[in-house]
Amino acid sequence: MARDEVILRFDKVSFDFGYNKPILSEVFFSVRRGSKITFMGQNGAGKSTIFKLITGELLPEDGDIHIGHGTTIAISRQVIPRADLELTVREFFEKCFDKKIYDIDPRIDDVLEVVNLHAPHEKIIKSFSGGQQARLLLASALIQDPDILLLDEPTNNLDKAGIAHLTDFLVKYKKTCIVISHDAEFLNSFTQGVLYLDVFTRKVEQYVGNYFDLLNEIQARIEKENRKNAQLAKEIQENKDKANFFANKGGQMRLVAKRMREKAEELEEEKVDVRREDKTIRSFVIPSQPDFIGEILKISAFGVMNPKTHMPVERKVDISLKRKQHLQLVGPNGIGKSTLLESLASGNNPNALIAEGIRVGYYRQDFSTLNFEDTVYESLLGVMEKPIEENLRATASGFLITGELMKTKIGALSEGQKGLVAFARLVLQKPGLLILDEPTNHINFRHLPIIAAALDKYDGAMILVSHVPEFVKQIRIDDILNLEK
Fold first, then answer.
1. What pTM value is reported for the model?
2. What are the extents of the domains in the chain?
3. What pLDDT, in 10s, does the model give residues 359-409?
4. How many CA atoms lie within 13 A of 261 on its CB side?
5. Which residue of 15, 20, 95, 436 has the lowest C-beta tally within 10 Å?
6. pLDDT for 158-213, tens place per residue?
7. Domain 6-72+146-215: what homologous superfamily?
8. CB-hemisphere CA count at 13 Å for 18?
9. Tell me, which fold does domain 297-482 have in CATH?
10. How far apart are the first and last CA of the chain?
């Protein structure tokens, strides 16, 4: 098959979820065989929905989706479905196929080597760390050897080594690949083109080049549109001034004035709608629990997973956190960072003591601290000490949570929107101890500097895990605990 042939094409595709919630409006774009394409857009714009339309999980309301005859498609989703967490590794990979694969074990070993993960086939999926689960998700798509590989936020939870390994794989990959990601540096290492879903027009714009090329092109277009509108505005005002002048002369001059006004109206219609950029969240502050003096958290030991023996090992430590002290945990995927954070947040760590009365704000990477059956409004209300409606709605609005979104169930939100709800909850909760596990996952990169600034200013005690160096650099870190050493 010719490499330049179109393998996927959307032809005037429209889609909505009902309840007056349109996602796509007569979308048109095409993808050529063997190309590596990035899909970008604001949180909740509908990028994952487009992936579901490509796989056939969803069907368009109008328009057609053309996929090359016999083309196979596999998707690496953002998170492993909850129902699959109880499966063994072998069962998880067996679910990737419609029929029984008799040589499944060697195929699993081969694909796990590609994603650089050691995973016994009998091990239960939920026992893996978030970063290891991200590698399993990627492997579950690769094992199918598809003609079109769809990757939805593949760098989430991956450590530096994991991202480097994935980048190297994609650079060498020979087949068609479409990636949703908010990691510009990662994308620019392999992207040949960008599909940009505009949340305002609900259309997909197609660009050649990487993400930085897209930014430059959009900025040039905005400047051109602004210049055109400025020139038109000048001509409109001149015609209005002339119309007023001739109207005051009376007689035949009124006809001239009328023509001047009509000309001004024609020019008004020539004005173009300047492209609206993705909205960013407002600057915010996470208030800390007031009037608390003294030690907030004491840790005397923690457990890690030995990477060679894959057995837990306990290590002694002497860590004390007070107000305005920020601690970063570092270490490779699978060593036990998330396990340690969860044990601290739940109060079930026998080697840690949290001061009595301290509220713990816990941002968990899989959002399992959120009740997926709650509406957004109920979720926000549930963490408030004093349920003041005005404060709730003002805070939510700052995180782009307005209108119908307040009535939406948490489970129906995009992963990025769940992240924004989680941050809004922290603002309303006013915790004394803030525990953050990969808070950049799924979040639009435009929001990250604002989030980093809020964490930098947080004046309670804080523990942070993040594999994004550029994000961490913007936050005051007082101490680092390396779980590997």
1. 0.69
2. 6-72+146-215, 297-482
3. 999 999 888 889 999 999 999 999 998 888 899 999 999 998 888 889 999
4. 11
5. 20
6. 777 778 888 888 888 889 999 988 777 788 888 888 888 887 788 888 888 777 77
7. P-loop containing nucleotide triphosphate hydrolases (3.40.50.300)
8. 2
9. Rossmann fold (3.40.50)
10. 51
